[in-house]
Amino acid sequence: VLLAGGSIPSTAASPDDSRMDWWRDARFGMFIHWGLYAVPAGKYDGKEVKGIGEWIMSRANIPRDRYEAYAPQFDPQQYDADTWVRIAKYAGMKYIVITSKHHDGFCLFDSAGQYDVVDAPPYGKDILADLRDACERHGVKFCTYYSIMDWHHPSQKPAKMNNGRPVWNPTQMIDGQKQQYVDYMKGHLKTLVEDYRTHVLWFDGEWPSWWTDQDGQELYQWLLELNPESIVNNRVGAGRKGMSGFTQEGSFAGDFGTPEQEIPATGVDSDWESCMTMNDTWGFKTSDKNWKSSQRLIQNLIDITSKGGNYLLNIGPKADGTFPQASVDRLRAIGQWMSVNGESIHGTQAALFRPDWGRVTRKDGTLYLHVFDWPSNGKLTIPALSNEVRRVSLLASPETTLNLNRDGETMVIDLPSTAPDDIASVITIDTKGEPALSK
Ligand code: H79
Known about the structure:
- It contains nine helices and 22 strands.
- It is an alpha/beta fold.
- The protein has two domains: about 20-345, Glycosidases (TIM Barrel); about 350-430, Golgi alpha-mannosidase II (Immunoglobulin-like).
- The strands form six sheets. A seven-stranded parallel sheet has the order 11-10-5-4-1-13-12.
- β12 (about 275), α8 and β13 form a beta-alpha-beta unit.
- The longest helix is centred in the middle third of the chain and has 17 residues, at about 180-195.
- The protein is elongated, with a radius of gyration of 23 Å.
- The protein binds ligand H79.
- Ligand H79 binds near residues 33, 52, 242, 260 and 282.
C-alpha cells in the first residue's frame, strides 16, 4: 500500500503498536530549542560565531565557568507558556518537543542538581512545568529533547584543548565516571517521565564513542518499564545513520527514525520524523535572517506527510521569552492553510503515488490530492484507481463536485480555471473501499 521505500530500517515500534497511535496521527509538531545560548544569541566576545546558535559553547570553545555566567543573565520576563501553545495549536501542531537539556548541560526543568533554571536567579521559575501545564490545558502533547553528550557534567571532558581552550565535541568520558553519569541521566529522565509527564523522549548527542548501542538498548528498555506509553527516538542508541537519520540494518533501539534538515526522497516502511529549522539555526541567533518562505514550509509538511513521516518544525525563542516575529508570521500562515486543509494532513498516511504536480495523502476511503502547480489546461491527471470513485471535490469548497473521466491507464479531473490556494489546493477523491491503483 505504501510507496516503495528502499531498505526497511529496523525500529522498535511495530506497526500495530497502539502506543504510537497519537504520534502517527499527529503528523506535525513544534520543536523548541531554548536555553542559555539564547543570551549570547550567536555572539561571543563581541564577535559573530559561525554555525548553529545552540552550539556556541563548542563553536567558540567557551570554558565552563565563562558559559555558566549566562545563567544569571537568562531572565525571560515575557515567557508565557499559554501563548506559545496557542500559537503551536493554531498552526495545527499536535505536540511540542522542547530542549529539557541540550549539549550545554543546562536544564529547563527542576533537576536534582543545581545547573537548572529553577536554581538560577533572577528568573528562578520552572519553564518546563509551565509549558507542560499549558500543553495539558490545550490538548497538545508535551514532549522533551534530552542530550546524552553533556559539555558541563564533571564526568566528561573536552575532546582536546586548542590553544588552551576546550574543544567540546565529542566529549570524552573520564575513566570510572560513566556509571555515575548514567545514574545522573536516569534521575533526570525519571523526573521528566513521572513529574513532567513527557510523551516523547527525544534523545540527541548520542555520537560520542563512550555511548554504545548496548547502553541505548538498556536505556530504552528502562524507559518503557518506567512508562509503557513512552515513545523514544532512535538517537537513544547508536543505530542512527548520519544526518539522513534512519536506523541501520540490524537490531537497534528506538521507535522512529530522525532525519535532520532533510526529507527522504521516498516513503519508508517505518516510523520517522524530519526535524527542520525555519532559518539556519535551532537556538536563536540575532544575525540569522535566512527564513524559508511559508510556501516552502507548508509544502514540506505536505511532502513529509505524503511519505508517511512527521514534520517537527523548530522555533528558537529569544532570551526575553518570545518567539521571533518571523517565526510567528510563518506559523500564522501555516495555520491559515491548515484551518482549511488540515483534514488532509492529520490522521492521514503515505499515498499510493507521487505526481509531478504535487503530493497525495490518504485516509480510509479518501485520497487528498495536494496540487502545488495548478495545470494551465484545467486538467489534472492521476493514475487510474481500481475502486469505484464516489465523488471528487475541492476541500476548500466541498459543495462543488468536479468531473472525473477514466482514460485508459489514467484518470483526468476537470479543474476550475484558478487555484483555490496559491500554495497548495486540495482535491478530495472519495472512493468505495480503500483506494488502490488499478495496476
Ligand atoms: O539540537 C539540534 C542540533 O543542535 C543538533 N541536533 C539538532 C536537533 C545537532 N547536533 N549536531 N548537529 C546538529 C550537527 C552535527 C553532526 C555530527 Fe554527526 C555529529 C557530525 C558528526 C557528529 C551526526 C552524528 C552525523 C554523524 C554522526
